[in-house]
């Protein structure tokens, strides 16, 4: 009974996290008018770091350099690289496209987990699902570049993001096994993420001016990303990974396209073409096929 309640809590945490993350593409797209991708990233996680510091100020002390390296790698992959690539992708492609493409993260997570966590074995059904999802992504990318004059580089960048996220998910699974405080662990990951961001900020000629923050929309969206999508959601997601495992939790990313496509049409008035809908359908269908097999493997 206790394990069942724990699993239910893990599923609930993952679902709430994805509901919020599914709309972050919208906030980022709005902020890109006045902010560079790395600036959004820096302010977002700086806010998140200080919120987590207020919630849990005790330092996380690792026993070995190998343990410390796990946190460093998680910060580099899950904060700096993933969001920098994702934000850069939104400069060239639609928020709805990015939301669909990022949803293939569970495939990459399953592949890495197969080799590093031994949670599942890859099957023919899994590869079939991946092929369908990849076909959907190609349709979205090609149609967007032809009809909407988008740069296909944006969709390619969006495709790289989930591969980096998969590495982060596996690292966080290993970190959760160290039994550190979840908020403290997340804050430590944020710290290294911010640290790895500094060279990019210096190369970008970071603008510390406050004039952009006088715009209520900019301030509201940065707070939404910093407080909700970063401070809250990284804690809830990392906790869910600790309870359910990297692969089971990543399955919730399949919901992202539905949330993002709907929000993009309603809030950004993005053009939703037949190819976007067809590509989203194929991506979700492929994800569902693989997810069923993953669940069966877990139950066995």
Using only C-alpha atoms, the radius of gyration works out to 19 Å
| Continuous helix count | 13
- Portion of residues in beta strands equals under 5%
- Helical coverage, percent range: over 70%
Report the average pLDDT across residues.
82
Fold and architecture overview:
It is found in: Cell membrane. Its main location: membrane. With 300 residues, this protein is mainly α. The chain has one domain. It has helices at 2-21, 24-31, 37-55, 65-89, 95-102, 105-116, 124-147, 152-176, 182-204, 216-244, 246-250, 256-268, 274-299. The longest helix has 29 residues, at 216-244.
Secondary structure elements and their pairing?
Layout: H1 2-21, H2 24-31, H3 37-55, H4 65-89, H5 95-102, H6 105-116, H7 124-147, H8 152-176, H9 182-204, H10 216-244, H11 246-250, H12 256-268, H13 274-299
Helix pairs in contact: 1-10, 2-10, 2-12, 3-4, 3-9, 3-10, 4-8, 4-9, 5-8, 5-12, 5-13, 6-8, 7-13, 8-10, 9-10
From the structure above, extract its key features.
300 residues, mainly alpha, 0% strand, disordered C terminus, EmrE-like, Drug/metabolite transporter (DMT)-like permease, transmembrane helix
Summarize the structure.
The chain has 300 residues and is mainly alpha-helical. It has 13 helices and no strands.
